[in-house]
Amino acid sequence: MKRLLIIAAAVALAGGIIHSCLKSDAMTVSSPDGNINVGFHVSPEGEIYYTVASRGATVLDSSRLAIDARECRLGYNAAVKNVSRSSVDEQWTTVWGEESTIRNNYNEMRVELCENDSIGVEYAIVFRVFDDGVGFRYEIPSQAAIDSITIMDERTEFALAEDAVAWSIPWDHEYYEHIYEPSIASRLDTVCTPVTMKMTDSLYLSIHEAALTDYASMNLHPCGGTCLKTYLTPWSSGEKVFTAAPMKSPWRTVIVASAAADLITSRMMLNLNDECALDDVSWIEPGRYIGIWWGMHRRNYTWEAGPDHGATTENTKRYIDFAAANGYSGVLVEGWNRGWDGDWSANGHLFSFTEAYPDFDIEEVCRYAAGKGVRLIGHHETGGAATNYENQLDSAFALYRRLGVNSVKTGYVNKLLDGRELHGSQYGVRHYRKVIETAARYGIMIDNHEPVMPTGLQRTYPNLMTQEGVRGQEYNGWSPDGGNPPEHTVTLPFTRGLAGPMDYTPGIFNFENKAVPGTRPQNTLAKELALSVVLYSPLQMSADMIENYENQPAFEFLTQCPVDWERTLVPEAKIGEYVTIARKERGGDRWFIGAITGCNAHEHCLKLDFLDDGADYVARVFADAGDADYRTNPMAMEIYDVPVDRHKILPLRMAPGGGAAVLISKR
Ligand code: NOJ
Ligand code: CA
Fold this sequence. Notes:
- The chain is α+β, with helices and mostly antiparallel strands.
- Helices cover 16% and strands 35% of the residues.
- Helix 5 packs parallel to helix 6 and helix 7 runs parallel beside helix 8.
- The model is unreliable at 1-21 (pLDDT under 50).
- Bound molecules: 1-deoxynojirimycin and calcium ion.
- 1-deoxynojirimycin is lined by residues 293, 334, 381, 411, 413, 449, 468, 474.
């Protein structure tokens, strides 16, 4: 105790003689192209603030940075000790993704500070400014003054220079499965990030975070005027984060774009994650999959064993045959294991991840699949019982590894994990990361449903393939509101899509729903095809029951559409109204176009100037017929070939709720 007092006194003395000797104008940093400028200053009272400007216009006014911990406070009585700068300009290769290589180019400013109080904690705010936005984080180095840190509140602010239209979902969510509604930023309630905003016709922002590995997820709520403040998802006991020095917070990120399309092509979140932590990634294989899945959501099958059980050996073999015949690498089978009987999403309900139902011969199914060059996609629904899952992780993954299953879909249908903690809490973040890391050790890829909002961790763990955390196709099977409205999928690429791949599971061909009449995909069949391009996922499902694909000419597009891309372009975009995405397949010459619209008909004259010079191509177009309409005639589609080259313009006509899917290959 005596020693502690001496240290405290020494630090307080040291704190007393530290002064901010740098003028505020010295504490600025700009993006490599000079368009984005970040400033940092300390108020006379010792509070710390940052600002962001784009092309000379203020984007964020003075916005406070502060952390309240039980053991110390940051940003209340601060003094700058040092400012250092560095720059990075490098390329890195993705294991899979929307681009094969990504440029990581930023200027960094590291502001080292000390609090002039009795503890005198030393910390740093690190800014990285890219051409497409800004990331910053708090760092607390190892030091004698502090060890354990219990964060009760992070007061990071985003003081919008002007009010803006903001697309968001409520914080009090069911696994982020909501419709992103446009609102006015200053009138938001507490919302999850990403929050995407249109400030002016030429200024778009999206606030989110990167590299959330052992912290609480970030949410935002208005804190007066047009200022938004961080609200960290708490533990059930009220604390936000348990940590210790040395610590680094996740990056707080603001994409700054002059057009909506540029939000989608920003790779800043990935650049702010650590590089790949796995030595061997040769086993990581993006792929297309089908599954015994929609049949349960539409109540043709049951998850639990019984007369209508979906996951029988025989039915799975039928799916395996179909996958092999149509170039699908995986077959998802839900309801194969014991635990589905009764109310499986009730707290305390426990699944087994190693015991199959008697009518599912897992050994035989996996042997059969291997003989056909197909793999089973494993399924682990936990019902939110995270500890029960952790206790079985090793045995469950070891079983799958022995059987040649190299991807697993996990699920957490329960508002609380282990009956106590929120998915976005530090508890949840730790659990999901443990699953990803353990899976990597067993050579298993993860498709995480009901996750914590993604933040780019797939750069570090590329076996984290895809995640839900989105109101996906399943709602078109049973939602009493009729399903996802047409605007939903033209909003997702600018909102949830900015957080990473989405396992939305597109590809329904049969819109009849005897179980919940009136609930169905609220779009045309052509739009349903286009979603496989627009909504990126390296494990991409064709979600319908296989009998609905038989003898369907449109199915050709799904069997051709890759899941791993060389390049991604966004030729046209308006949030909530329409978007066209063009992607070039990795390791090939073909381009795939997905164009989709909301409720209103739309025409996009697509310039093909991204095609190779001097090369002749043919475009196979899967488009809404002239009389198509998502409400009255959703199946009406035309399929035709057009010779094209880079000087041509391809008209894409979309019906209300419609779309167009195009495959362009060299002649
Ligand atoms: C919710 C998931 O999102 C869905 O895909 C799955 O079929 C059910 N949970 C059952 O695990
Ligand atoms: Ca779900």
